[in-house]
Design brief:
The protein has helices at 3-12, 17-33, 47-58, 63-70, 74-77, 81-89, 91-103, 112-126, 129-144, 151-171, 175-189, 191-203, 205-225, 240-249, 270-283, 325-333, 337-343, 350-357, 359-371, 382-389, 416-423, 425-429, 474-486, 512-522, 551-563; strands at 232-237, 261-267, 285-286, 292-293, 306-313, 316-324, 397-401, 407-411, 431-436, 439-441, 453-457, 500-506, 527-531, 542-546, 567-574. It is of the alpha+beta class and 575 residues long. The chain folds into four domains: 3-189, Orthogonal Bundle (Hypothetical protein af1432); 192-335, Beta Polymerase, domain 2 (2-Layer Sandwich); 395-486, Beta-grasp domain (Ubiquitin-like (UB roll), Roll), CATH 3.10.20.30; 500-574, ACT domain (Alpha-Beta Plaits), CATH 3.30.70. The strands form four sheets. Strands 1, 2, 3, 4, 5 and 6 form a six-stranded mixed β-sheet that branches. The longest helix is centred in the N-terminal third of the chain and has 21 residues, at 151-171. Residues 341-361, 370-389 and 490-495 have low confidence and may be disordered. Bound molecules: manganese (II) ion.
Length: 575
């Protein structure tokens, strides 16, 4: 696709001239990176990033996000591209592209037990909701063009799409995207069922359409009489996957699925929603028990609308959904609807009020609470809203992977030894080295979300007291202490042990201990043990056990301690 064709499509989605100039330059870079590269289907590779970017434009995302769609596979292809992006187009675009590249490493193996962790890791690694949306559009286009892949790969991708991507789209309230992902997955995972359901739905489609048109005419006349001006009336067919699921619940009885087709009335305001409902119920007799006021009582996922089912004829049931444009937009594209609003010319300060209305925020907050204690109140301020976009609600946790792809959830600041003890105490006790993303790293390395961690073990390896200063989790600390007690002390008298006991002689006055501990705290040295003289006698020293970095640091500590008021003598000794 050349620029002219691409530009024409962008215009269709109301991308403004200024952004087009920017996107033209980005497209040039993307074309350069993917030059000569082909997809399995034989098409030029660039057709894929272009398609992804157009999906983002259709969702009315901002220019940087559309641009990131163009470049989403560029860094994977040539890692140095990230620098070029940063230099030519700035931090925000390079941040988004980098985020997409990192998320590429997160996969679901399909094992249900880890799925929730995988989802959380996916979001934690993405760092920004827009990165998640780019990945969803990437996956959607891959699913649309999956036919040319070998069957085994196709099924693996479809399974992951169903378990991970569709479910994330659902969490973000992007029902439309979720429906597309589910139907495409179903097509490749359950082809027979797919054929059957779509066949049944298609069989009666023309008849149904004719009938609905007739109903629509009657409805329009009555709405006009009641002075309700609908913005749009349309109908949607239930998507195949959810029709299949429902059919299974009803043991294959099609007649029990009353919402196979729903007529949608989009009106300007809430008053017209209830007015429209009155018109529908005046025209046709409602089915008892089928009326749902999701405006007054939104669904737990935030969905708002009025639902009712009526007998348009004896034994013919039609479902109606009545909602405002805003409710409709959020129902269709969830989180992405936010950008559509700001595009519509609303000022940035409109952010705040929109933020309050967007129910996915409370969704995300609820999700967050599963892991972290609640931060802030129910009424999200605009800052909190922006925070939510930044996906930093997992900021106290990290999600790392085993070489097999299992997700391990650890507190922030954890090191390879925390990971090792989390897997198994034997792996911890015999750890001799750690590989992070395939590279050897020291045990003091702070793990980050998305890291693949592999622990190298050796039979004769044993924990060293120094490890106590390297781990973050209480579990690892306890297990190391246990192991240290288990092995004869002698084995730690090796020359590389740096555990030092410092004896401080002096008068134990008020604030004395605090003065001593602050010498260590200032140098960020963990005190592993402190035994203070009970009697306050100058003969019995205060004993501090620690692991200084080197001789110089130890000398430094000693001279500092000697300067403390009341200290008579300081003697260090290796244990
Ligand atoms: Mn891609």
């Amino acid at each position: 696709m050349n620029w002219e064709e691409y530009e024409k499509k962008l215009s269709k989605f109301h991308v403004v001239e200024k952004d087009k100039e920017f996107l033209k330059k980005v497209l040039e870079l993307a074309k350069k990176v993917h030059d000569g590269e082909k997809r399995l289907s034989g098409e030029d590779y660039i057709t894929h990033p272009i398609a992804v970017s157009l999906k983002l434009a259709e969702l009315k995302m901002d220019a940087n996000t559309i641009a990131a769609g163009l470049l989403h596979d560029a860094v994977e292809r040539s890692p140095e591209t990230l620098k070029t992006i940063k230099k030519n187009f700035g931090d925000e675009l390079s941040f988004l592209v980098d985020g997409v590249t990192k998320v590429d490493r997160v996969h679901s193996t399909g094992a249900d037990r880890a799925l929730e962790s995988v989802k959380k890791m996916f979001l934690a690694v993405a760092e920004d909701i827009r990165v998640v949306i780019i990945k969803l559009m990437d996956r959607l286009h891959n699913m649309e063009t999956i036919a040319s892949l070998p069957q085994e790969k196709r099924e693996r991708i479809a399974r992951e799409t169903l378990s991970l991507y569709a479910s994330i789209a659902d969490r973000l309230g992007m029902w439309n995207i979720k429906a597309q992902l589910e139907d495409l997955s179903m097509k490749y995972l359950y082809p027979k069922e797919y054929e059957y359901i779509s066949g049944e739905i298609k069989k009666f489609a023309p008849e149904r359409e004719k009938y609905l048109k007739k109903i629509l005419q009657e409805l329009e006349i009555e709405l006009k009489r009641a002075e309700i001006k609908p913005i749009e009336i349309n109908y949607r067919e239930k998507h195949l996957y959810s029709a299949w699921r429902k059919l299974e619940r009803y043991e294959g009885d099609w007649s029990r699925i009353s919402d196979l087709i729903a007529l949608r009335i989009i009106v300007p305001d809430i008053k017209s929603c209830y007015g429209g409902l009155g018109v529908v119920h005046k025209l046709w007799k409602p089915v008892p028990g089928k009326f749902k006021d999701y405006i007054a009582l939104p669904k737990p996922n935030g969905y708002q609308s009025l639902h009712t089912s009526v007998f348009t004829e004896p034994r013919v049931i039609v479902e109606f959904q009545i909602r405002t444009l805003e409710m409709h937009r959020e129902a269709e594209s969830g989180i992405a609807a936010h950008w559509a609003y700001s595009e519509a010319g609303k000022p940035k300060k409109g952010f705040k009020s929109i933020g309050k209305k967007f129910n996915w925020i409370s969704q995300l907050q609820k999700w967050q609470k599963e892991l972290n204690p609640p931060a802030g109140g129910e009424n999200a301020s605009s800052e909190e809203f922006l925070e939510a976009l930044k996906i930093d609600f997992f900021k106290d946790r990290i999600f790392v992977l085993t070489p097999k792809g299992d997700v391990v959830d650890l507190p922030k600041g954890s090191t390879p030894l925390d990971f090792a003890y989390h897997i198994h105490s034997e792996i911890g006790n015999h750890a001799s080295g750690a590989k992070i993303n395939g590279r050897m790293m020291s045990f003091s390395w702070e793990l980050r979300s998305g890291n693949v961690v592999e622990i190298i073990t050796q039979k004769n390896k044993k924990p060293s007291p120094e490890w106590l200063t390297l781990v973050r989790t209480a579990m690892a600390k306890n297990k190391i202490r246990q192991a240290l007690r288990m092995y004869p002390k002698k084995s730690f008298l090796s020359s590389d042990s740096k555990l030092v006991e410092i004896r401080i002689y002096g008068k134990n006055r008020i604030g004395f201990i605090k003065d001593i501990t602050s010498v260590f705290a200032r140098r960020k040295i963990n005190i592993q043990n402190l035994i203070s003289a009970r009697s306050g006698s100058e003969e019995v020293p205060i004993r501090v056990t620690c692991v200084p970095k080197d001789k110089r640091e130890l000398d430094n500590i000693v001279s500092r301690l000697e300067k403390i008021e009341g200290v008579k003598k300081v003697t260090p000794a290796f244990k």
